[in-house]
Predict the 3D structure of the following.
Amino acid sequence: MNNVLSVLSPPKIQKNEYEKIVKDIISQLQSNSDASGIRELINRYGDKPFSFIKSGNQLENKRCAPSIRDAASIYVLIKYLQYYKNKTSPGDSFNAPKHYMKFFSDEWDEAKDFIYNFMCNDPNTNSNLLSDIEIDIVSGSVYKIKRYFLENSKIKDIRGGSALIKYVNEDATFDYLRKSYIEECAIYCGGGNVLLVAPGGEGEEICSALENKYSEITLTALNAFVYERTNLNEFVKNYKGIMNRLNRKLDERKKLKIYDINPDNSIKMITIGNVEIRFDNTDEIDEKGIVCHLCGVRDGKYKVRMPDGETAVVCPSCQRKHEVGKEKTIFYDEYRDFTGSSVIKKIGSIIELGDENGHVAVIYADGNNMGNVVKNIETPFQHMYFSRTLDRTTKECVYKSVYEVMKDEAMFEAIALGGDDIFIVVPGDKSLEITNKIIEKFDSKFENKMTMSAGICIAKSTTPIKTMFEVAQAMLRSAKKYSREGNNSEGTVDIQLIRSNIGTDLQESESSLFPAVNSELSSYLEIMRSLKTDSKIKSSQIYKFSNAWRIMKNPMEFQLFYLYQVARLSSRYNDYTQRFLNSIKSLEDNPYRYCGLMHRKSGSSGGSDYICLWDDITLLMDASGR
């Protein structure tokens, strides 16, 4: 476990820095009695480690070091569970601010004793401390998410579907907890997943309430919730076993759950952030049996105005995605929070993202080695810190990478950003630089104990997003396979350029430079920067080399053509091919590397034993700007 321990707990800080933080927290707690304000204060310290102090001595955390935020939240949760068990009147209210203040005091109690001895250190298997506090562990998720928001290729509806998932998973879940329990019941809510600790006997009600709430709002997003009864003592002693049982139950629930074909209800509006979004401002049709114009699956019921000014009949689910998708600021607000810069040009359609060639790119990425990290999680503290850090890191990597590449001219569409999942659309000629920076930042943040792989699809802006996503998904699988087989300690990337809307055969396409590890991609981009500013290199000649190989397909014929052109024009072309090939870490030497060709990778199929480097150089020209 030692090789991943550092990504499961916050990094250590100096004692004087820690003491200053705690002193500042206590000072602010003394002047603030508002629960929401206190939670906002504590949440700022989600990346700072907590240490218990008993009788004036700082205690050592041998098992795991919780963050200040997580230790305080779990303490208040334990106090709430004790309050819930012992309350005698329905009118009794829980005083969270009082317990936050008590947590940071010098007073020692059994809740602190339990957290320190059972969660921060190896638990005493003979101790029954807090075994009388029964709890229900609730686990849930929204699944097959991309099927939900990719029912059509209109960016407004995709954006709306993604925003609705984020809204129910975070805002609606916390809103429910605030009304029925306390926010501290949430171990994690984000990326489509939920993990809660609730008072014993409440699990069934919570599962039913959250399934209903998620379905009432999204109508057709698939979701499932289950619970496991245990007690606080057993929960900490057997955290892995309980989580494994919950995962199996959740898988079974997903298989057995039945959904309505044409769901609808009377919800009139939701509020996302500060924006009120209404669902009752469209006309309902009387005619039955009309298929939804957007998804082509469910029955149409409402009239909506499309971007071209025409009116279309859509189903209730698509109507909600359509209305929510009109609001463009959902991810842009996060972008401003992470970068300090605002997106000036809001995107109304994917066509607006096109580069000078009319190309856009779908970047689809997620983390490697996630399973190895997750299976080493032994405490709720590690789960809380890792889930939150992963989510924040992914967003930070994406937003900062977009800003560093595009500066004040940033344009992008974030379709899904949560957990380690990335699905964004950017101008085609910025895609490789953005991807390169995302992977570099992610790998560095997790000390290369976890890395990120990415698949990129570049195509004309008129290409359906659903088609581009499927290609990017295939490229991601290729990149992850390359990572596994090469046992790489850094992220990987693969890319496909769709040159026409007729289609592309992913089985037959072959690349000389991709898939690549991220350091190779960095080298390719550096070479391209030199190539594009070299006065002896003509871009038209590069495309001529690529087209010649497609026409000739005979290595000897292409070799003669290539050597003649290089002799006639400049040896610089061959210099660049050698620089590219020298950047490939696993390349075997062969004589054709000096003629713009290289051997097919072992196991590859195809009519020729060779592939052309110039195909990839033209792709790099398109994917890294000119």
Summary: DSSP finds 22 helices and 19 strands in the chain. The first strand starts at residue 53 and ends at 54. The CA atoms of residues 549 and 558 lie 6 Å apart.
